[in-house]
Amino acid sequence: MINENATLLEEIYQATKMGLEATQLIIPKVQNPRLRTEIEDQALRYQDMGAKAKRMLHADGRMPGAEKTMQKAMLRGSIRINTMVDQTPSHIAKLMMNGTAAGIKGVTKNLDRLDGADTEVKKLAEDYIINEQKNIDELKKHL
User: What is the residue range of 83's domain?
Assistant: First the structure.
């Protein structure tokens, strides 16, 4: 059960790290004040949820895994290329929605296969998924 807890918490932690990285990279490119505020709020939620996952890992005597530098580099390159020509609110919203959907997919996959994880850990995963779905709903308004 502890391994399942750690696996699910690690997935949440890594997803929030990637989400935070994406928001920090894209915020300087956002000209629309409403969209910028929504993405800044999203970044704060990533920080909060990532900190919770990290605390829960520490409580189990574990440390979060190393940063995935290749994924981070690919994210940076993708954002740089995808915003070089098109920085419209709809394009930025689509980029953010794609990343958000990837986070949902990873956490959902692990939540579904790790039945033995503690209720508290599952709840954090479910909260992450609900929060990400709300982010997508907000971003859709910019399409």
Answer: 2-140
